[in-house]
Automatic annotation (TrEMBL):
PANTHER family: FAD-DEPENDENT OXIDOREDUCTASE 2 FAD BINDING DOMAIN-CONTAINING PROTEIN, FUMARATE REDUCTASE. Belongs to the FAD-dependent oxidoreductase 2 family. FRD/SDH subfamily. GO terms for cellular component: membrane. InterPro entries: FAD-dep_OxRdtase_2_FAD-bd, FAD-oxidoreductase_2, FAD/NAD-bd_sf, FMN-bd, Succ_DH/fumarate_Rdtase_cat_sf. It catalyses: dihydrourocanate + A = urocanate + AH2. This is Urocanate reductase. It comes from Enterococcus phoeniculicola ATCC BAA-412. It comes from the Bacteria. SUPFAM superfamilies: FAD/NAD(P)-binding domain, Succinate dehydrogenase/fumarate reductase flavoprotein, catalytic domain.
């Protein structure tokens, strides 16, 4: 599994604001204007990681002329980008009826809600700005064979397989585009015994039964064996099937993950899309499939959010109810519903309930599909499985510099230096940094937050270009020359790094027991001197002790790339109840489905697993649902 994040800081922040003059042709509601007092109003509401603030200016005609959204505390790639987009749209449309930005629905909603609160201060009737009542179109009812919810990899595969099986398919997608998170980050799926591996030579000759056994072993058999088997055994053929749908792949000749290099299974299963994109606007592999799907007759209803499953008296799922962009309802009657809505990592309440910590990142959806399936009687299962992947510096405030974590200081983050938890204790062999999954799993073991502790002498060595062997995933760290003490001091100024002239002072700054931190540091220094470490760190990484003040502690946090469970399914991806009895007519795929990993949060370090699961689970569900039409 490779990590593909944009080469910007994960957690650093900045104020993002929009100043936009509205064109003179813009309509203003006269009635609304009469009630409005011109001026600038502000309000704050809870976002995902932090409060979201707005400052909105209205003129005496009730026109919104300026809107500044402060989303500085949100994840830059998600809420940080969504905030200005939503603010711009509010001004352009003079409306609060704004579609949430995919992957950042909480921040999007926070900007809208805060704007509404601020506008109310001006005396404006904000109900009118929501506009749904005035603009709602006709409610609509349609009938099809299979309805797929979600246009990510899992939903797309389900639709393609169902069409292959001769079914008439309608797809509902809440955003205006296809692809979901599947479109622009994941490099591609894992696959076993594909034709590409056979052509690539004997190092790629890895057997299905060995992969299945390895995954079962990794999960201690807590995974649902029949499902893991079905996915692994399907995966090789899925490559050829996807090629038929227009996707080209290649297998890697090397892996950037140091910890994977001696284990073929960890990386030689990864099948990279030839057409890969870091940006949602670029064309990616999934777009090619959708072009072919459109030719094959797939109807995608965009800006349409599925909300509720329809059931008959016997408990069979017979369709889905959705809301369209204009607020009107769409009811789709179908023989089967396939839910592929991307999990619930973007739902802070669910994350807190199932993960016992709010210290995980924000990637992911709001759990709509998972909740719909539960409401329809599907069993809750494996609710704490996640794609924990990579760690980033934590920026405490909007003043923090967005560039520190992409600066050469990232070499410190990617090195096996001393890591401590919030209690001041060391907790693992820091060489876990060479595997993006394992380093996150280790960080989860201490609640998702940890500190990297270094002294000035270590920073001086990095300045001289003498780093330890570093993690090289996602292009590796910035290797430019730099003064690391200067960078650390900058981090201290911004509140990203805690500094102490002595270990005691550092302990005070971190709010940990002085004696605990002193013992941790002494033990670590002994390990460095003797080259013997109780956690098993290798001699080559036992180079830098923590001896000479000043001392620095860099606050770090896990990045969670999505939840990987929630709804119990069988090997056909049918949702099942607690007794493993299928709920007729309901399939759950991709990040919404439980059981493949059985990971209880510890994500297995095999490249391409999650994307592979998305495509293969969708394909199996689409095949099964379409085959049942003939019954
Ligand atoms: C940064 C990042 C890097 C990653 N890198 C890798 C990697 O290298 N290898 C790997 O294997 N995996 C990787 N993954 C994980 C992988 O991308 C996902 O597990 C997989 O793409 C999930 O696919 P999906 O179809 O389940 O969900 P998604 O792609 O999230 O699709 C869900 C779709 O459902 C729509 N939707 C949600 N709710 C509704 C609703 N109520 N009504 C209608 N539509 C709805 C959404 O808008 C979205 O389009 C990465 C993930 C991230 C975030």
């Amino acid at each position: 599994m490779g990590l593909f994040v944009k080469k910007r800081t994960m957690w650093a922040v900045g104020i993002l604001s929009i100043f936009l003059l509205v064109g003179s042709g813009c309509q203003t509601d006269e009635k609304r204007a009469n009630e409005v007092k011109s001026g600038t109003y502000s309000a704050t509401t809870k976002g995902f990681h932090a409060d979201v603030g707005v400052e909105v200016t209205v003129d005496d005609k009730g026109k919104i002329t300026e809107l500044v959204a402060d989303v500085g505390g949100e994840t830059p790639e998600l809420g940080g980008e969504a905030g200005p987009k939503v603010a711009k749209e509010i001004i352009e449309k003079q409306s609060l009826d704004i579609e949430a930005v995919s992957g950042a629905s909480i921040t999007s909603k926070a900007v809208v809600d805060a704007t509404e609160t601020a506008l109310k201060e001006s005396g404006m009737d904000t109900e009118k700005l929501k506009g749904k009542k005035q603009t709602a179109g006709e409610n609509e009812e349609i009938t099809t064979d299979i309805v797929v919810v979600g246009a990510g990899a899992s939903g797309t595969a389900a639709a393609a397989a169902a069409i292959d099986g001769g079914a008439k398919v309608v797809m509902l997608e809440k955003t205006k585009d296809v692809g979901g998170i599947s479109k622009f980050f994941a490099g591609g799926p894992f696959a076993v015994e594909s034709h590409l591996q056979k052509e690539a030579g004997k190092e790629y000759d890895i057997k299905k039964e060995d992969v299945l056994q390895t995954l079962n072993d990794y999960a201690h058999y807590i995974n649902y064996g029949p499902l893991t088997k079905a996915i692994v055994y399907k995966s090789g053929d899925t490559i050829e099937w996807m090629e038929k749908w227009g996707v080209d792949f290649h297998v890697n000749e090397e892996t950037p993950q140091i910890a994977h290099q001696d284990d073929d299974m960890k990386w030689r299963l990864y099948h990279w899309y030839d057409l890969f994109s870091y940006e949602p606007t670029d064309k990616a592999a999934i777009d090619v499939v959708h072009e072919k799907l459109a030719d094959a007759g797939l109807e995608v209803k965009f800006n349409t959010t599925a909300e509720k499953l329809l059931k008959d008296k016997e408990g069979n799922v017979i369709g889905v109810e959705a809301t369209k962009e204009d607020g009107s309802k769409l009811t789709v009657h179908a023989k089967s519903v396939i839910l592929g809505t991307g999990g619930f990592a973007g739902n802070p309440d669910m994350m807190e309930e199932y993960y016992n910590t709010d210290a995980l990142g924000q990637w992911g959806e709001d759990g709509a599909g998972v909740k719909m399936a539960w409401d329809a009687g599907a069993a809750k299962w494996d609710t704490a499985s996640s794609l924990l992947h990579g760690n980033g510096m934590v920026a405490p405030s909007k003043e923090s510099d967005v560039t520190l974590s992409t600066s050469p200081f990232n070499q410190i983050v990617r090195s096996p230096l001393l890591w401590i938890d919030r209690g001041g204790n060391r907790y693992c062999n820091e060489e876990a940094v060479w595997d993006t999954a394992l380093s996150s799993n280790a960080a989860y073991s201490v609640g998702g937050i940890y500190y990297i502790v270094v002294d000035k002498a270590t920073l001086d060595s990095y300045t001289k270009g003498k780093p330890l062997v570093m993690d090289t995933a996602v292009g590796g760290p910035n290797m430019d020359k730099a003064d690391f003490v200067e960078l650390a001091e900058e981090g201290v100024k911004q509140g990203i790094i805690t500094k102490g002239e002595t270990v005691e002072e550092l302990a005070k700054g971190l709010d940990v027991e002085k004696s605990t931190l002193q013992t941790t540091v002494e033990d670590y220094n002994t390990a460095v001197k003797t080259k013997e470490d109780a956690y098993g760190k290798s001699k080559d990484s036992l180079v830098y002790g923590v001896e000479e003040g000043p001392f620095y502690a860099v606050k770090m946090q896990i990045s969670n790339l999505g939840t990987l469970g929630g709804v119990r399914v069988n090997d056909k991806l049918q949702a099942t109840d607690e007794n493993l009895k299928p709920i007729s007519g309901l399939y759950v795929v991709g990040n919404d489905a439980a059981g493949f990993y059985g990971n209880n949060t510890a994500y297995p370090p095999y490249e391409g697993l999650a994307t592979g699961f998305a495509w293969n689970s969708g394909r199996i569900a689409g095949e099964d649902a379409s085959s049942r039409l003939k019954e």
